[in-house]
Write a structure and sequence with these properties.
Blueprint: H1 5-22, E1 24-29, H2 34-50, E2 53-58, H3 62-67, H4 74-77, H5 79-96, H6 111-120, H7 126-138, H8 147-156, H9 161-168, H10 171-186, E3 194-197, E4 200-203, H11 208-216
Helix pairs in contact: 2-5, 2-7, 2-11, 6-9, 6-10, 8-9
Length: about 220
C-alpha cells in the first residue's frame, strides 16, 4: 500500500521519535563503589559516541548488602577479593589515564553526595559533580562524607552550595533517595555500577559498552 506523502512523513517522524526515546541508559552508581569511579569517568564520552542519553541514578548499596547479611563491603569481608580489587583498580586507572589513590577509609559514607545528586536529578551539572566526588574519594583520599568537602565541590562547579545542600537534606529528598534504592532492589540490582535499559540489567564497569550497545539497538 502506498502512503500519502503527509502520512509517510508522520510515520517516519513517529519512528524517529520512538528511536530517540529508546536510546536511554539508566546509570546506577554508589559513591562508595570503586568500579563506579571507572564507569563515571568513561560513560560521558562513550554515551555521546553511541548516541545514548544517560539518566544518572544514585542509590545506596548499604540496605542491599544488609539484606544479604553483610555489614561491610564484600571487598573487606573477603580478603582475597579485596586484594584483587585494589590491584585491579590500579591497573585500570592507569589504563584509562585516571588518578588513583587507595582511600585510607573504605568504604566511605556517600549518603550526602547521593542526596545532592538525587535533588539535582538530571541537571547539566550532575556529571561534573559526580566525577568530582569520585575523584575526591579515589584520587585524592578526601572524606566525601564531610559537608565541607561536598560544599567545596559544589562551589567549584559553579553551584550555590548552601542552597543545594539545604534542598538535598529536606525530608522529601531523603525519601526520594530511599525510593530510588527500593527501585534498584525491584530491578534486581545487587551492586554498582549497574546499567538498565530496554528491560535488561548490566553490572560492572566492564559491561558499560555492552549496555550502551543494547540501549542503542533498535
Amino acid at each position: 500500500m502506498t502512503l500519502a506523502p503527509g502520512r509517510e512523513r508522520c510515520d517516519r517522524r513517529a519512528g524517529w521519535l520512538q528511536a530517540i526515546a529508546m536510546a536511554t541508559l539508566d546509570f546506577w552508581f554508589e559513591f562508595a563503589s570503586t568500579y563506579s569511579h571507572l564507569a563515571v569517568a568513561r560513560i560521558g564520552a562513550l554515551a555521546r559516541d553511541a548516541g545514548v542519553e544517560v539518566v544518572w541514578k544514585p542509590f545506596l548499596l548499604g540496605p542491599i548488602f544488609k539484606a544479604q547479611g553483610w555489614k561491610d563491603s564484600p571487598f573487606n569481608i573477603y580478603e582475597a577479593k579485596g586484594r584483587y580489587m585494589w590491584r585491579d583498580m590500579e591497573r585500570l586507572c592507569e589504563q584509562y589515564g585516571l588518578g588513583f589513590r587507595r582511600p585510607s577509609v573504605f568504604p566511605r559514607n556517600g549518603l550526602l553526595a547521593a542526596r545532592v545528586a538525587t535533588i539535582a536529578g538530571n541537571d547539566a551539572w550532575v556529571p561534573d559533580f559526580v566525577r568530582a566526588v569520585y575523584h575526591a574519594n579515589f584520587a585524592e583520599d578526601r572524606e566525601i562524607s564531610d559537608r565541607g568537602v561536598i560544599a567545596e565541590i559544589l562551589g567549584e562547579i559553579g553551584q550555590d552550595s548552601t542552597a543545594v545542600l539545604a534542598a538535598a537534606e529536606t525530608p522529601e529528598n531523603k525519601e526520594r533517595l530511599k525510593r530510588r534504592t527500593e527501585e534498584a532492589v525491584r530491578l534486581g540490582i545487587f551492586g554498582a555500577p549497574s546499567f538498565t535499559t530496554r528491560g535488561e540489567l548490566f553490572w560492572g564497569n566492564d559491561r558499560l559498552e555492552d549496555a550502551l550497545a543494547w540501549a542503542g539497538d533498535e
